[in-house]
Amino acid sequence: MADLPTNERLYIWGRNLFQQQQEPVLWAGSVLAAAARKMGRSPEIDEALILAEREDQWPRGREVFDRIRRRSLSREDPLTEEQALYFALAELVAKLAHNAAGQRPLFDHDSGWRVGPTAYRLVAAMDDPELREHLARALGGWPQDL
């Protein structure tokens, strides 16, 4: 795998990581919660965290995704690169909840595969050892060959 470009290695790692999860929505929520410890909170992030924790809320996944996306794309208050990655994690949580609830139309089948790579990119952008540790614990480790 070392001869593959970094993006492809990240994607494969993310897929394998996601496929190991017994409760993928809760896992993705724990990754978002780990990021929130350093990145701060917002109403959209809080909604995604609640969504991940409560299966009865999963059918609201698309609604929560739409709110997060609107905030992500806001021109009045644009996000930094780091914030954009953080909000991308929240979007993935909402997508996973929506799909797990069986709501139609489904989001991309590989949405969960992007949780690990997005967290990896967030850590690279932030260069914060404490954030790296929080996310490593939530993810279950980092890829060895990057």
Write the layout of secondary structure elements.
Layout: H1 6-19, H2 24-39, H3 43-53, H4 61-72, H5 81-100, H6 115-126, H7 129-139
Written description of the protein model:
The protein has 146 residues and is mostly helical. The chain has helices at 6-19, 24-39, 43-53, 61-72, 81-100, 115-126, 129-139. It starts with 5 loop residues before the first helix and ends in a 7-residue tail after the last helix.
Average pLDDT confidence is 94
Number-wise, the strands total 0
Low-confidence stretches: none
SS content category? mainly alpha
Level of helix content?
A: 55-70%
Strand percentage: under 5%
Specify the number of helices: 7
Secondary-structure element pattern, one letter each:
HHHHHHH
* Biggest pleated-sheet summary: none
Cα radius of gyration in angstroms: 14 Å
Taking the alpha carbons of the first and last residues, their distance comes to: 10 Å
Shape: globular
Short description:
With 146 residues, the chain is mostly helical. The protein has helices at 6-19, 24-39, 43-53, 61-72, 81-100, 115-126, 129-139.
